[in-house]
Specification:
The chain is α/β, with parallel strands linked by helices. The chain has five helices and 15 strands. The protein has a seven-stranded mixed beta sheet with strand order 6-7-10-11-12-13-14. It has a six-stranded mixed beta sheet with strand order 5-4-3-2-1-15, with no helix packed on it.
Length: 241
């Protein structure tokens, strides 16, 4: 599995021959790329409807959309998406097959109003667990699994469900504070998830969320966790094995 962070919360995930783009937003100071520099992925995954997560979704409307039914309906009308996974989107707790990947939608504790002239709901905010095998109750040491927490606060579901049952090998968590978890709570999330690798996201884009990722790494060490923290340079791939 190959992971590429494009700044903020935008990730390009390659599983086998399948490309997934999560929360496309290229107006951030970490990336040098424009949406036109990105080949159209097979799937676009949207965690929620805030502008800093869907701003450039319309640039990839030829892809299949993975989002809540409410957000799918909005994106069909606003951006011209015609294909949504399952024809109608998906919802929390569901797992869908997306080419060579399996995508499970998880809960995120956040808001999801879409700020238009007449504000509309995008349904529940979400995170995604992306794996190269279908999740089962039988632990699979051969699978490779990546968890994108989306915009969220610390929640016990990470400790009680996502960590022990979906078994991510790596996770990306927001550390910006103010709108989401900050470094301390994000570090607790990483400890609860018991992942081998952790990546900070959703920081340094706007003044209220400026953070030093080394503080996050220090907080992770402070939990006693041996998780390896990677503050990635944008647009450079990371191979997860």
């Amino acid at each position: 599995m190959e992971l590429t962070w494009h700044g903020h919360s935008t990730w390009h995930v390659t599983v086998g021959e399948t490309d997934l783009l999560i929360d496309p937003f290229f107006d951030n100071p970490k990336t040098d790329l424009e949406p036109s520099d990105i080949d159209t992925p097979d799937y676009v995954l949207l965690t929620h409807g805030h502008a800093d997560h869907i701003a450039h979704a319309g640039e990839f409307s030829d892809a299949t959309l993975v989002a809540t039914p409410e957000l799918v309906s909005y994106c069909e009308a606003e951006f011209g998406f015609e294909d949504a996974v399952g024809g109608m989107g998906m919802n929390l707790g569901g797992t869908v097959e997306c080419g060579d990947a399996y995508v499970t939608m998880t809960r995120a504790d956040h808001t999801n109003g879409i700020m238009t002239e007449n504000e509309t709901s995008g349904g529940m905010p979400a995170g995604f667990v992306v794996s190269d095998t279908k999740p089962t109750q039988v632990s699979d040491d051969e699978s490779t699994t990546f968890y994108n927490a989306g915009d969220t606060s610390l929640m016990t579901e990470m400790r009680e469900v996502i960590g022990p049952y979906l078994e991510p090998d790596a996770a990306t968590v927001p550390i910006g504070d103010h709108f989401t978890m900050g470094p301390m709570q994000a570090a607790i999330a990483v400890d609860w998830l018991d992942v081998d690798h952790a990546f900070p996201q959703h920081y340094d884009t706007f003044p209220p969320i400026e953070q030093d990722p080394e503080e996050f790494a220090s907080e992770v060490r402070g939990t006693g966790s041996d998780t390896e923290v990677h503050a990635l340079e944008a647009d450079e791939p990371f191979t997860l094995e």
